[in-house]
Amino acid sequence: MTEVHVLGTGMVPFRKYPDKTLADIGWPALREAMLEAGVRGADINAVYCGTALGGMLAGQRVTKVLGLSGMPIINVENACSSSSSALAQAWMAIKSGACDIVAVIGVEKLTKFGGGTLPLEKEDWEVNQGMVMPALYAMRANRYMHEYGLTDRQLAQVSVKAHDHGALNPNAQIQKRVTLEEVMTSRPVAEPFTLWHCCPTGDGAAALIIGSPAAARRLGRGSVRITASEVTSGKYTNGYRDMTYPELTVRGAHEAYEMAGLGPDEIDVAEIHDAFTIAELMYYEAFGFCERGAAYQLLDSGATSLGGRVPVNPSGGLLSRGHPVGATGAVQAVEIVRQLEGRIGAHQVENAKVGLTHATGGGVAGYDHGACSIHVFTT
Q: Looking at the 3D structure of the chain, how many domains does it have?
């Protein structure tokens, strides 16, 4: 099986675009990726589009604006893992030799809902009883605080770090630094979360062109390779589960590390799924960046900040860059590719050679999460 190279990347700033259609948001990101890769529509063998709430045939609606049609266009829905799952399918198409050049799009328009929490399926019994994602993560936070002695003040420091990073990212939805006091005294959402503990909803899109070694040679592109691409689903249980232990991510991380032939000590930069402050801390542990219960100590040491040993979410992450659900996995990949190419701008991680992305999708009773997609990128 062949190597997989990233030939081009594109994104639009994550914002609220109430007057634009999904296609209006998506096509500029795809065009940027195509121009960067130096490919035309005729060069693309297939398109994989990830969106969670974008409606039917989202990929076709985006690509037709650029005159792209006729090739297989596959639409992927996997909640917050939608576009990272689309990338995994595209990776396999190249890896297997079935395709030479493939486009990946992640696109979402959440402003169409007018605000509020992410709409979940009412047929799920927990959702029907009122479960929403902030409440679920708040329960995880409370349990983690009980088990490991994490304080409200320590948890709020995750948000401060995220917005310090996001202030450096011109594509972030929120480019505002916040103080510890601002985080702790902002509007309550679900105890212990206030507003600044939660990622904002909005709109956005990102795209990648990936290809075979032959395509990379022809185009003179592709210094970054995708060395691991992994998708797992949660294990269903209707009984007890440890809410401080994200089993799905732990399992996925192990598989991704094994596939890439790397370990956690070799990751130079990571973009992980920090939809809420507690998530970032739990995922430090899941990826082996520290032992269980030691996540705050890792954060407080500065290791996960810009200039630290393993900067996590230098883009600002979901907390600051924003979380237009189906676009998140793709934009994480774009961020990491540009980091490894040394051209991300003010939030550049020096000498980054190995990067990791991680997006989970939840919202179904009985699962830790429904889906998780992890990618490892190397130069």
A: 2
- CA 197 → CA 117, 137, 185, 273, distances in Å? 14, 10, 11, 13
The yes-or-no answer on residue 80 being catalytic is: yes
Given the residues 49, 80, 199, 372, the one annotated as active site: 80
- State the SS3 of 248-300: HHHHHHHHHHHHHCCCHHHCCEEECCCCEHHHHHHHHHHCCCCCCCCHHHHHH
| Share of the chain residues as helix, strand and coil, in percent rounded to the nearest 5 | 40, 20, 40
Q: Single out the residue of 224, 232, 243 nearest to residue 359, CA to CA.
A: 232
Instruction: Examine the pLDDT at 125 and tell me if it is beyond 70.
Output: no
Q: How far is residue 266's CA from residue 49's CA, in Å, rounded to a whole number? A: 30
Nearest to 312 by CA among 325, 301, 299: 299
For the entire predicted model, the pTM comes to 0.96
Phi, then psi, of 151 in degrees rounded to 5: -100, 165
Contact of 6 with 208, CB cutoff 8 Å: yes
Same domain, 189 and 209: no
Who's near 143: CB < 8 A, 6+ residues apart? 243, 244
Would you call 10 exposed, middle or buried from its count of C-beta atoms within 10 A (0-12, 13-18, 19+)? buried
- For 190-204, letters b (16+ CB in 10 Å) and e give bebbbebbbbbbbbb
Query: Whole-angstrom Cα distance, residue 61 to residue 308?
Result: 42
220 vs 186: CA distance, rounded Å: 50
Closest CA to 33 of 60, 65, 7, 63: 7
- The first and second tokens of residue 147, run together, are 């088990």
pLDDT tens digits along 205-257: 999 999 999 999 999 999 999 999 999 998 888 878 888 999 999 999 999 99
Domain assignment present for 119: no
Residue 134 placed within a domain = yes
Each residue's pLDDT tens digit, 173-189: 999 999 999 999 999 99
Contact 225, 210 (CB under 8 A): no
**What is the C-alpha to C-alpha distance for residues 168 and 145, in angstroms, rounded to an integer?**
30
Question: How far is CA 101 from each of CA 92, 94, 229, 364, rounded to the nearest angstrom?
Answer: 12, 7, 17, 35
pLDDT at 73 over 90: yes
CATH number of the structural domain spanning residue 56 = 3.40.47.10
Mean per-residue pLDDT, 86-107: 98
